[in-house]
Write a structure and sequence with these properties.
This protein has 420 residues and is mostly beta strands. Helices cover 15% and strands 40% of the residues.
């Protein structure tokens, strides 16, 4: 008789634990990156009153007779389904769409999280402001190269975002031309264009360019800069010719050179790109008005880092005041053989266990990892309607097991009365 009481107690405990799980889910309905938990039941051991018997020639078999001893929580699973990515407008808010976790560390311990509400600390590092843990990077992006400045220190996996940091300007070495020169223009007729170029210190200068028709299908180009700023060394590209169909006959490029007074005696050489020979992608010569113009050049002024952007693969880009976008670092995106085996640590963090398997770090959109999205946060994946349903079921389970205990107690009380 007493076994029924203990059976009821096991049901109370299991349903109470379920209420704890459901209550925690509902409490975290607005927690960034929270993943729902689910309690699974299993029955306990059994007492066999009689075993099974097999059939014989004269009689059929019998099934085993057993009474159970209740229930227990067999497992509490983490359901890692995708939460909704909710726009925030904050450039440092990040959300992962698909598999993977951000990695954070304090130098001693490392944890993993889906909550990407990050910020910049006083030293310029990307951190989780709720704990101060540093967001971790992957690879060598941002450590510098022959053509890119260094923003990160090799061996240091923190992400440095030095707002206000300066990058030097770049001198112009190439100018690109597009447009038409009028085939009906008279000999000696001109068309003019201009473009802003930069010297080796990143200072800007106006480069004036004048096309002059010298013969049928033939033009010369003369370049100049303001005399107060510098002196032309080589200013003319002669015999720019065109085929009868209007395509460029040649040359494909020309060069000019000059000295900036403040930088003399250094000479700056600029290549002028007119397009493909026998092609129509650059300068052409058709009837109609002239539209030939210098449309682009590869120099720029010095600039300062004033904001960041994030690519889908987790690359952190610095956006500078001169319009340049340079890679600063790349976020480490972590995946596991069994992410449901991770241990919850609070603060939206998970840690590695023997059941999760070893961490694999890489870039977003690689190795089955999801994409990194900027100015969004992943919402909780708690389904309120489902949790309320589980809440009702757990409540009913608690009530009926309490009733089992109550009835068993009454039966024992009746037996006690009989003894009297």
């Amino acid at each position: 008789m007493s076994s029924s009481i203990f059976t009821g107690v096991s049901g109370l405990r299991a349903n109470q634990d379920t209420l704890n799980v459901v209550g925690n889910n509902l409490a975290n309905v607005n927690t960034t990156g929270y993943k729902t938990q689910r309690a699974n039941f299993s029955d306990l051991f059994y007492r066999t009153l009689s075993g099974a018997t097999g059939p014989s020639t004269n009689i059929g078999g019998t099934n085993p007779m057993q009474t159970g001893f209740g229930t227990r929580i067999a497992s509490i699973d983490s359901l890692l389904t995708q939460g909704v990515l909710e726009p925030t407008g904050n450039d440092l808010d990040l959300g992962i769409e698909g598999n993977g976790f951000f990695m954070v560390s304090n130098g001693t311990e490392s944890f993993f999280t889906r909550a990407g509400a990050f910020g910049i600390d006083a030293s310029g590092y990307l951190v989780d402001p709720s704990t101060g843990f540093f967001v971790q990077r992957h690879g060598t992006v941002g450590e510098g190269s022959a053509t890119l400045p260094a923003f990160q220190t090799a061996g240091d996996n923190r992400i440095n975002i030095p707002f206000g940091a300066a990058v030097p300007g770049q001198e112009t070495t190439n100018v690109l031309f597009r447009g038409n020169l009028n085939a009906l223009a008279a000999i000696g007729e001109t068309t003019t264009t201009a473009i802003q170029i930069f010297d080796m210190q990143g200072m800007s200068h106006l480069l004036n360019l004048v096309f002059t028709k010298t013969a049928n299908n033939t033009w010369d180009l003369v370049a100049s800069i303001p005399p107060s700023e510098g002196t032309m060394i080589s200013d003319t590209v002669s015999n720019i010719t065109f085929n009868n169909d209007g395509s460029l006959a040649g040359p494909a490029t020309g060069t000019i050179s000059f000295q900036i007074t403040a930088l003399a005696p250094s000479t700056q050489t600029v290549t002028l790109d007119f397009g493909l020979v026998n092609g129509f992608n650059g300068l052409t010569q058709f009837g109609g008005s002239s539209s030939a113009a210098a449309i682009n050049q590869n120099g720029f002024a010095p600039g300062f880092l004033n904001r960041v952007s994030f690519d889908k693969d987790g690359t952190v880009n610095g956006v500078f005041s001169n319009g340049q976008v340079l890679p600063l670092a790349q976020l480490a995106i972590a995946t596991f053989p069994n992410p449901a085996g991770l241990r919850r640590e609070g603060n939206n963090y998970f840690s590695i266990t023997s059941q999760s398997g070893n961490v694999s770090l890489g870039a977003g959109l690689s190795g089955g990892r999801g994409s990194v999205n900027q100015a969004v946060l992943e919402g909780s994946n708690v389904d309120i309607a489902l949790e309320f349903t589980r809440l009702i079921i757990a409540q009913r389970g608690f009530e009926v097991n309490a009733r089992t205990i109550q009835v068993s107690s009454q039966v024992l009380q009746t037996l006690t009365t009989l003894i009297q």
